[in-house]
Structures are given as structure tokens and as C-alpha cells.
Amino acid sequence: MNLDELRSLLARHARPDTTTAIDGVLISKVERRAPPSPSMSGTLLALIAQGAKRIALGDRVYEYHAGQYLIASVDLPITGHFTEADPERPALGVGLTLHPAAVAEVLLEAAPGDLSPAAGGAPSGLAVSTASAELLDAVIRLVRLLDRPRDINVLAPLIKREILWRLITGEQGAVVRQLGLADSGLSHIARGVRWIRDHYMRSFRVEEVARLSGMSVSAFYRNFQAVTAMSPIQFQKQIRLQQARLLLATAPNDVTGISRRVGYDSPSQFSREYRRQFGAPPSQDAARLRDATPGTAAALV
């Protein structure tokens, strides 16, 4: 695969905030390895052109290198860091936000027999594969549009659809296809994930979220763990701790108040679980967060 052109394009167009002139396209350039950082994954395709990255989701670890891509089909609490990056050879990556409606439109245009049968059950929310020559070619043509701004509005949507088709018919097609199916197991779990994320401060019963997701308790619990590598309660704890970390970056002296704001009744339990998650007590960790708050999209790209 010819990654040289993609590396050159990404190095030239990288910005500090990862955004580009093409809606939903992100570019990352990282010159130094850093400790693992927590964030939310978003739903996106992330392809590495240079360097390597490691992502942890629950007890699962995913690594991807130059020429490989990662799919995130659910917005998940992850911890990640680049394992290969330095000023002479920075890590370079490109991301494309995946929208369920866009995936659904492509699926509707597929002819009968174009797609292989989907496996049963909900797939993992993260998956890694090597990019095919066709997928890499489409990604390069999409990034090339940054050199021709006049072409973006007309051509970018067409190339994005091509990329989706390459993903849908590729090795991780089942993961991407479920993102666009309104009644897939993944869509039901995504509904539960969104509810927990939006109401992370309050206690809940798994039965309650299963009902909101339109699944039986046993099916919800089984599929939730398959997608997120966590139980619903563990997932809630990850969201609470990540949110607390973001709040501490701006209010490092209000550990007790922040612990209550994210849903903890016991400050000591909060401090204990925070230290277990991030390797330092809240007040100590807050001191090193003031100048660097983890991003969302940059977690994967």
C-alpha cells in the first residue's frame, strides 16, 4: 500500500485541534509519546498512516499501526496513547466520523446478495483491521480535497460514501452495518449507552435501562458486555470518573464538590476509585491536568 502520499498530506494539513475544512474529517499529528489518556471514542473510522496507537476498553486492548484502521461503532469510554511517536517521525492519523443515517443510506442502495450474512448478536464496539488498497485509495482522495477547496462540497460526500461502502464490504463490515440498522443489537445497546451517559449522575437498575433499550434483561446485559467490555454499572463508573477528571482540570480544589456532582455519595469512595483508575489521588492528578485536557476525537485519530 502506498502510504507515502497520505503521510505527506496529513503532515501538511494537520492542525492543533484535529479539525479540517471537510466536515467530519479529522487529522492528528503527535510528536511525542504521552501517558495513557482517558476520553470518549465517538463513532468513527480512524486510520494510522505513521506510528502506532494502543486503546484500552474495559479489559480489552486494541493496537493499530501504519496501514491499519480502527472502527468505533459506539461512543465508549476508552484510554489511549500513541506508542510510536517522536519529533523526527510523528504519529499521523486521519479520522472520519461515522453517522448511522449515512451508513443506512448506503445499505439501502446495496443490491440483494451484495452483502454477506451478518453474524448474530452485537459485535464489539471497537474493531481493528488492515486497510485494503481500495479503502486507502479512497481515504487519500478524500484528504487530497484539502488542496482543492472548491471541490470539497461536491466531491467529499461522494468519496465519503465510497469509504462507507469499502468499510461495509470489508473485514469489519458487520460492525459498520449494525451502526446503520435501526433494529440491530448494536443500535439497542447504543440506546442504553446514551441513556447511561446522559444520566450518569443518578443510580439506576439494569432492568430499567434494558426496558428503555427494548431488550430483555439477560439479552441487554450479555450484549452490553459484548459491545463495551464492561457491565452497565462499570460503564457508569467510567463515565463518572472521566467527567470528574474533566471538572478537576478547571476546579482542582473542589474534590468533594465534584465527587457529589458526578454521583458519588462518599468522597472517600470517589478518591479510592479515582486513584485506581488514573494512578493518583484526585487533587494530585488535577495539578497535571490544567494544561492538557483530553480530547474526544483525538483519542482514536
From TrEMBL:
InterPro entries: Homeodomain-like_sf, HTH_AraC, HTH_AraC-typ_CS, Tscrpt_reg_HTH_AraC_N. Gene3D superfamilies: Homeodomain-like (1.10.10.60). SMART domains: HTH_ARAC (SM00342). One of its GO terms (molecular function) is DNA-binding transcription factor activity. Keywords: DNA-binding, Transcription, Transcription regulation. This is AraC family transcriptional regulator. Pfam families: AraC_N, HTH_18. The keyword Nucleotide-binding does not apply. It comes from the Bacteria. PANTHER family: ARAC-FAMILY TRANSCRIPTIONAL REGULATOR (PTHR43436), TRANSCRIPTIONAL REGULATORY PROTEIN (PTHR43436:SF1). Residues 190-288 form the HTH araC/xylS-type domain. SUPFAM superfamilies: Homeodomain-like.
